[in-house]
Design goal:
With 292 residues, the chain is of the alpha/beta class. It is built from 7 helices and 7 strands.
Length: 292
Amino acid sequence: MKVTRTLPFRPHCHLLPTRLTGFSIALLKATALELAILAGHLLLYPSGVLPERRQPLALPRHPTPSAPPPETLPARAKPPVLLLHGFIDNRSVFVLLRRSLAQHGRQHVESLNYSPLTCDIRAAAALLARHVEEVCERTGQDRVDIVGHSLGGLIARYYVQCLDGDRRVGTLVTLGTPHSGTRVAPLADAHPIVRQMRPESSVVEELKRPAPGCRTRFVSFWSDLDQLMVPLETACVDHADLRVQNVRVTGIGHLALPVHPAVATGIRQALDADPAAGGHAVAKTGDGLTVA
């Protein structure tokens, strides 16, 4: 299934002069919000350095002989949700999103910290693969859903496409992820994992390869004011073999994507949608989310 496009991408330099003032005001507001979120996140950052406490093992997958008949069994629980942070970050970035998911019926939500010293997306994806297997064993579930912010989304996508992760991941939601590579901050290329997020990297080229039969559904949130995505539409998934919905978020920047209430609502809608059903997972709203 081909990628679902949102509003056409237009570089900022093509904006009409009459709209320049409005755009500048929106950019200033988004920048102020980014700074406020950054300040709050710096306060929370130490709380997310250590790995979180694991939730206990689930009951056996199959009913025992003494269990009630199938028609009286409770409905199957929703899949566990794994949250994967971005570059030089940790699980503390998901404090608000976790609360939102838990309040709306997600009984098992946990985060995976990968080391800020990680230098290879492939190695981080292998770590994710091991963690997914462990979560499935602990919860008695066969599938999980994943929400990845920025680099976390790219790691999760590599796991799904290149490490057979589509057999385990029902829905992958990415937030401001450079799917086609980003050209922001060339001086940051000193870090190997940043070089892997460039458009010409071998990792990005691997993700462009055919992926026939991929079972995972992709929902990608991208912002029109995300200054870390160059060009902006790199945060959209564009792959002919993948089931994709790209969701345009207006008026906020990169750091706001995992904490904004409208985005949290969109994420919940995406995760609650039936992966086997067609159509859009995220409804068009008046809260800054736009889908085609």
